[in-house]
Amino acid sequence: MKIKKNLLVAALPLVAAAVAYKWSTWKTDLVKAVIKRQKDKGDYKRFIKNYPGPPESLQKKYAFEKIDINGARGYWINKAQANKGVLVYLHGGGYVFGPLEVQWKYIARMSEEMGMAAVVIDYKMAPEHPFPAGLQDVEKIITTLQAEGAIPETYYILGDSAGGGMAVAITNVLMEKKAALPKKLILMSPWLDLSMSNPAIKFTAYKDIMLPLEEIKRSANKYVPNRDFHNPLVSPMYGNVKDLPPILIQIGTAETFLWDNRKFVQRLTEAQVEVQYEEYPDMFHVFALIHILKEGKQALKSQIEFLA
């Protein structure tokens, strides 16, 4: 009887681990099912609610300060920590919406985890403000804060989806202006080619539960009305990659953008740019922002280690 009891005690951690693993898998599957259902219904409104300013739930926990530089707007998070480094965050949203609550929560947590300040740039968006208005806002805020000494030499640019593509574009702008570059870039499911002309896209577009292909193309047309999608400041795929800082790219294998990301990583590698590339099996667009998922937690951990 004592032997059986000892075996039971010894087995408990294994059982707990198995249950935890199953639960984490169920959570991922549940989130996917909810997103897919809304996509199939054509109803994205429950996911898309702009928060130009920080949600009230975060204002109780973090210190925020408005930024307004001649109409270019944003927010500081934990500005007092800027001497330890600054995370400049560019939100996704197809250049037509955002930031969303989940994006605010993501960058606030990154600021806390890294012990650094963050700057969230609420850049102007299409269709009212097509390219290059948003990129000019980003340039204005970064270069002005640099000139004021508010952004130190140790700073990083993070972006998801459209914000990921913009992160590469603004780095090239800063390079041309001989301004101080970010030490590293973090790109989560970045949109790197607005032409959407890669024939391999068809292999995963049907799996993408977050982004309908036609909606992606409509957003591209709103952002770039003249259809000059090969402009490197619109589509970093066609721009300069030489001398870019080290880059972490995270993407799911069930994303429309998967193939362009693989192609971009090849360009970076050929140019001898330091790149850490992570593919997450069967994960959807910008999953890295959702930290209740085990894959989101893993992506966050990897980002923290990359910046450390």
From TrEMBL:
Coiled coil: none annotated. Pfam families: Abhydrolase_3. Residues 1-20 form the signal peptide. Keywords: Hydrolase, Signal. Residues 87-288 form the Alpha/beta hydrolase fold-3 domain. It comes from the Bacteria. GO terms for molecular function: hydrolase activity. This is Alpha/beta hydrolase. It comes from Pontibacter rugosus.
